[in-house]
Amino acid sequence: MSSADPPPTPPLGQKTVLVIAGPTASGKTALALELAAALGGVVINADSMQVYRELRILTDRPPPEDEARVPHRLFGVLPAARRGSAAWWRDAASAEIDAVLSDGRVPILCGGTGLYLNALMQGIAEVPPVPAEAVEEAVTRYARLGGDAFREEVRALDPVLGVRLEPGDSQRLQRAWAVATATGRPLSDWQAQPTGGRDDLTFCRVLLFPPRPVSAEAVEVRFRKMIEEGAVEEVRRLAAMGLDPSLPAMRAIGVPQLIDYIEGKRDLDAAVDASVIATRQYAKRQRTWFRHQFLSDIRLDAQFSKSGFEKIFSEIRSFVLTPKL
Question: What's the pLDDT tens digit per position in 258-269?
């Protein structure tokens, strides 16, 4: 094909993007891999922690053999010293999608970070940068006051998010406090004015939503497997970098708990148990978000397994090939 020829039409239609979403340990990565292999697609990361270079094991990034099987994008692209954001990811993912489509291939977004997915599909509020001092103060106040009392402070600053967020949702509460304090305007006000969504694309949203007991068991099995594969050594290397503990990579589930183990503050079993509990709590918040804020086109109420691939693949093709009103 000469450079003047148009790119081939993707097998699922021009400007179609597959979105494989769901709570942690639901089988998203495995499904995305099979779809990419079947369609000649490219897997684009939509997980806020899998963007960090130093955390391959603990964030359950695709292994090298999977990355060699099909193209992967936006995995391990940021150093742990950087702060990723929904706006940064939206712009990076948007550029990757355009590049994949121009090559005549299928973009396959894969991840469970709902804020990132919404930033691309619906747009995101352009919140001004928040000074590091405000972020650090939010972290300190949350640690000193505890979740319930800190949420009351957030409620006074931002009544909408103060009611919506749970006391244990530390990162979002701290973000709401820091933004309101630094800008003088509630974060919920900023969020009510999203910009930058890709309404020129057709999104086929696939939601994996296994029953909670299945998810809870998968979380524990997966975390213990991470330990066997070297998660402690990975966190030891990260801790040795001496980074700001408020950085997102330093707050990834498992990092603070394993640092406590490395520093002799708890034994390994206790660190693993605490990490599993934290992951299950995160999965619960994800389930709530996907249940109320993610409009899926195709939903699988089970953990993905290869035996169910043909059915999902058929549903995806049917959705994409059905004319939209």
Answer: 999 999 999 999
Per residue in 132-176, pLDDT (tens digit) is: 999 999 999 999 999 999 999 999 999 999 999 999 999 999 999
Binding residues, by number, are 22-29
Are the beta carbons of 128 and 183 closer than 8 angstroms? Answer: yes
AA letter at 62: P
Q: Residues marked as binding for substrate?
A: 24-29
Domains located in the chain, CATH noted:
16-125+197-321 (3.40.50.300), 132-191 (1.10.20.140)
- Measured between alpha carbons, how far is residue 272 from residues 143, 178, 220, 269, 278 in Å? 21, 31, 9, 5, 10
Number of neighbours of residue 272 by Cβ within 10 angstroms: 22
Q: Enumerate the known binding-site residues for ATP.
A: 22-29
pLDDT digits over 18-36, tens only? Answer: 999 999 999 999 999 999 9
